[in-house]
From TrEMBL, chains A, B:
<keyword id="KW-0238">DNA-binding</keyword>
<protein>
    <submittedName>
        <fullName>Transcriptional regulator, TetR family</fullName>
    </submittedName>
</protein>
<feature type="DNA-binding region" description="H-T-H motif">
    <location>
        <begin position="38"/>
        <end position="57"/>
    </location>
</feature>
<dbReference type="Pfam" id="PF17938">
    <property type="entry name" value="TetR_C_29"/>
</dbReference>
<dbReference type="GO" id="GO:0003677">
    <property type="term" value="F:DNA binding"/>
</dbReference>
<dbReference type="InterPro" id="IPR001647">
    <property type="entry name" value="HTH_TetR"/>
</dbReference>
<dbReference type="InterPro" id="IPR050109">
    <property type="entry name" value="HTH-type_TetR-like_transc_reg"/>
</dbReference>
<dbReference type="InterPro" id="IPR041474">
    <property type="entry name" value="NicS_C"/>
</dbReference>
<dbReference type="InterPro" id="IPR036271">
    <property type="entry name" value="Tet_transcr_reg_TetR-rel_C_sf"/>
</dbReference>
<feature type="domain" description="HTH tetR-type">
    <location>
        <begin position="15"/>
        <end position="75"/>
    </location>
</feature>
<dbReference type="Pfam" id="PF00440">
    <property type="entry name" value="TetR_N"/>
</dbReference>
<dbReference type="InterPro" id="IPR009057">
    <property type="entry name" value="Homeodomain-like_sf"/>
</dbReference>
Amino acid sequence: METREKSRKWKQNPEAVKADILRVARAEFARSGLSGTRIEDIAAGTKTSKRMIFYYFQDKQSLYEAVLEDCYAEVRGGESELDLEGLRPDVALRALLEFTFDHHSRNPEFIRLVMIENIHEARHMQKMHALAAKNERAIGVVERICKAGCEAGLFREDISPVALHWQISAVSFFNVANRATFSTNFGPELFDEAGQALLRRTAVRGILASVLKDVSQLDALCPADPSLA
Amino acid sequence: METREKSRKWKQNPEAVKADILRVARAEFARSGLSGTRIEDIAAGTKTSKRMIFYYFQDKQSLYEAVLEDCYAEVRGGESELDLEGLRPDVALRALLEFTFDHHSRNPEFIRLVMIENIHEARHMQKMHALAAKNERAIGVVERICKAGCEAGLFREDISPVALHWQISAVSFFNVANRATFSTNFGPELFDEAGQALLRRTAVRGILASVLKDVSQLDALCPADPSLA
DNA sequence: AGATAATTGAACCCGCGGGTTAAAAATGTA
DNA sequence: TACATTTTTAACCCGCGGGTTCAATTATCT
């Protein structure tokens, strides 16, 4: 209402400046971590100055937390684009895993921020109470698939939605997070297009296997070698 | 020979001092990363002084690299305790995964150092040419299992040893590395004894499923619910 | 216009922490 | 004993970088 009219007329646009700072800060913190990032390096990448960073974000740690929250919101928001309504439970699960795998791949900065949070024992993430709702929704998606799968007689009754989510996260996350050390140690071949397709396919097969009541359907649902399908 | 006679007589014992420094430095670097660690904090934990750290290790980065190499050697060394000779390939694979899962669990400092290396795009690990041999041996173990599995007609012919190693690493690594954020977001229940047993069991099942030629053996080899076995 | 509040710039402060200097002990050799 | 080498201590240096001061500018309201 009033504030919006204001900002339209203003040349100085605080929201835009803040967004600019957040954008650059996200890249820097993702690259170098909390202690490794220099505020001056952030300032250098923005259209504004070091002074303004402190003006809008108090101190380094608050800026870091703002970045984390901002990035988390954006990425978790992007997840809601996925629509699994009406799919067969096994197909839905497959779609969810493939989507998550690709989505993590497309958001390496988010992955790096989570890695950094883990180094900090999730200290800053614990403050972000707004996350609770988003997390419950993420589990809710898996939960609904599980329930539908059980009701359709396709899935085992004893699977834990949280454990299933853990499995999906593990492969999708590791694939991005540990690329540097893994390819240093064991070569880059898993990270070209063919390698990624292989890993994704294998992950789908593995996870479906741990969920299906009748594993003999596995080869029909997801052949290990798609060229034979 | 001579140096050993020396060190026996000496009160001052350089090797012991260096080892002491490395021990404390490993803990600190694992806790706080390269830029986050203060040399004085390391010194405070040793029986010696800050000056001696620079005396023996030149500068902070060299110390960090020495810690990384030391830790890597120790952990990869611990892996050689596993003896899979004479086991059936499917049993051997299962044993390898269970061992790796537990071994990573017992070495959180190593995991954290690898996380930190990934943040640094593996810059320091790339200098450690001594690792190549150890890495090849790790892949060699998986390779032999694959080969034996194929020859026994148990495994698919198209599986890549490196990809299989990736799968084993992914679950074992993620399980330790992302404990903080995962349990912050989704609760701690996967990380008590029962939860860990569940994850390990599920991982075994998933990975075997992606390798076995005849998936119908899966339930016999690794029931999803062991209480039914 | 003039009062008031929001935004910005330039220069500054200061303590933390990586790294050094210099010289004293400890050990070894002849 | 004299002398060289290695190990250790205590005190110091100094620049980097997080955070501040203060005044100038810009915009808003009446």
